[in-house]
Structures are given as C-alpha cells and as structure tokens.
Amino acid sequence: MAPFDAVVRGPKAPAPLARLHGLPYFVIAQIIFATNVFVLINWYGAIGALAGLGLGVLGSVLDALVSNSFGRNVLVLRYNGFSDWSVLCAMALALLGGQLMNVIVIEHLAGPAAVADLLAASSYTPWTLVGVLVNIGMSEVLFYKGHQFLHEMCPELHLMHHCCLRPTGSSNLISDPRDLAIELGGPGAILIMNHFLLWDEDATVLLLSYLFVTWYYTITHHEWLATYHIKHHTRLDAVYTVYINQRGDARLDKIKNLLKRPPKHVLQ
Fold first, then answer.
1. How far apart are CA 149 and CA 255, in angstroms?
2. 201: left (phi over 0), alpha (psi -120 to 50) or beta
3. Would you tell me the crossing angle of helices 84-102 and 41-66 to the nearest 10 degrees?
4. Which residues contact 181 (CB under 8 A, 6 or more apart)?
5. How many CB atoms lie within 10 A of CB 183?
6. CA dihedral in degrees (258, 259, 260, 262; nearest 10)?
7. What whole-number distance in Å separates Cα of residue 133 and Cα of residue 115?
8. What is the reported pTM?
9. Each residue's pLDDT tens digit, 179-227
10. Terminus-to-terminus CA distance in the chain, angstroms?
11. What is the rounded CA–CA span in Å between residue 114 and residue 118?
12. Distance in angstroms (rounded) separating the CA atoms of residues 92 and 25
C-alpha cells in the first residue's frame, strides 16, 4: 500500500471532513501558523519547534481529508513519475527546512523580547514601514527571478510542484528540495542580509518582513482563497510573481510541455 492511497478518492466521493472545506480549514491553518511562530518557537525554543513540526504534519493530514484536490494531485504526481514516497520525503524536508528557518529568525536573530515588542507602539517608526516594504519588494524580485529560472532553465526541478494542478494548503510543501532552495533561498537570504546591512539589526523590521513573507507564501496555495497563483497552477501561465500580477515570457516556459496531464480515466 502506497502512503497516499488512503487520500485518493473518486471525484464524486465526499471527502471525510468535507464540512471543514473552505473557510473553516483556512482558519485552522492560520491558527496552526500563529501557534507555531508566536507560542511554540517563541516560548519553548527547540522543543516547541518539534511540537510545531507535529502541528505542520497535522495540518497536511487535515488538508488531505477536507478536500479531494490533494488526492487528485497525487494521481497527477504518480502519472508524471513521482512515487508517493518521493513526494512524502520532499514534504518532510520542506517542513523541516521551513521550521529550521523559523527557529533561526524568530528565536536566534530576533528573540522572544522582539516578538513581544511587536505589540508595543514604541517599536514602530516611519522607517519600520519603509524597511518592511523594501524587504518585501526585494524578496519579490528574487522570488520572481528564481521562479522564472525554474520555469525556463530547470523545469525538471519545478515539475513536482506543478503537478499540483489543484493547489491546496499543503501544496507549498510538495516541491523538490532544490526547487525550494532556488525559489525561496533568495527571499530568505535577502531578509537576513538586510537585517545586518540595511536596518541596523532592527528586530521589528526583520520579524514583520519574515512573518509576512512566510505567511503569504503559505496562504497563496489555499484553494479557498482562489488567488491568481492558483491560476498559475491550473493554467500553467507565466505569472512568476507572488504579490503582483507580472507576467514573464510564456514562450520560454518549459513546464507546460514537460508536465503530462493524465487522461480522465486515470483521475476516476
């Protein structure tokens, strides 16, 4: 029995937790995100981070139970040559890598006091907003270039992620580790570099920038929100940005020809 057999259902079969589909699951996912960063890592450090990993696994399991889209993506992944075990390992590595980054930024670079100071008005100046906006803008440019590079130069690394033709809350975890390093390594690195080089180690700027970037990357795949990034997956268009609708040259995109869409009988 393959790991994902239990979550592959027929198109007319109801999901076990279908009542939670949409807004309820989205709210639960936000609670998991907030609990992980503001409570578990912030208050309990490494032990809390381990508990946060458990919450992340729980969120992914819940994702597969509230909608049939996860199972449909599994069928597309299998049709394109990705075994369930390879996808499961990729998801585990993505979860571990993301949590490690959370610990580095939240616990070590910022610290619990800085997280608490997010609620203090004295932590904010006009330069705080400038710093956050500059960070987000620079991270968007780097994400765009990394995403464009994957589509045009290394489509085989990005194929696993684009087998999620119906993105769900956990689709951000379904990526080749090298894909994540290229696509998200730049945005993460620039936030840390700017922390030391531009913003005089202002923990408020770092935290606000990092939390917004990571939070937005997690929600952009939620099918309930129906963001244009969802359309990027379903249509395989050349919109390589996250925050703005900026298109690249679709003629150079190699993913569309590489990805094999299964025939209808495979999806039954």
1. 11
2. left
3. 150
4. none
5. 25
6. 180
7. 19
8. 0.94
9. 999 999 999 999 999 999 999 999 999 999 999 999 999 999 999 998 8
10. 19
11. 7
12. 21
